Amino acid sequence: MRILITNDDGINAPGLEVLTEIASDLAGPHGEVWTVAPAFEQSGVAHSISYSHPTMVARLSDRRYAAEGSPADCVLAAISDIMSSTPPDLVLSGVNRGNNAGENAMYSGTIGGAMEAALQGLPAIALSQYLGPETANLADPFEAARRHGAGLVRHLLDNADWRSDQDFRLFYSVNFPPVPAADVRGTRVAPQGRRQGTGFSVVPYTAPNGRRFMWVSGGAQQASARKGSDVAQNMAGFMSVTPMRADLTCHASLDRLATVLDRETEASEAS
Question: Which residue from 200, 212, 29, 2 is spatially nearest to 89, judged by alpha carbons?
């Protein structure tokens, strides 16, 4: 198996080292692991691409590259250039330092890298490690992902739905819970949730020269979300798996809205 790995924490991030171990386990002795990751941290860039300016890509060693761009840029660079003659069989993005459950998924460059791979027609999984009080004093805060990651990905490769969902191929978001590896209670398939009463905000700052700046501040990651959601399952000690697709359409609203608008159009034309 030929596996491409990327992330949004940067080429030197410890989570990428964990993902390298996971990918090497999956690829086996006769497989290949290729790394194309951002040269610098790209947290919060979501599915952005460097459309309006060029991106430098540097070869660091055999099958290891750094790109001055987003995770989606890295996937595009790998598929269109670096690995164009031998495309990957699987794309893994992560392991993110911090969860990408709930509303975090909308901002996540880790999710963005997996989404771009799916848009390019490749199987893709984003992996993230939830952090919290129980992981704060661990020698390895990625312990749960390191121990359980390869096994969970194997289960997904063997059993998950890898077909296209209408026009968009499915990809998967995995979040490892904020507990030691020995305390992981199992796996739950869960929808994306949303933490209640919290979210991203801005902290203003005035520099000594009088210029106005702002820091983006994250919300409380231990806040509760609806029962059964990815956030709730992670907080209960379970690994969560969420099927995703690059389609923001609210399909449940299409027919009702079309009926209302068609009726108004007919009434306007009749008058």
Answer: 2
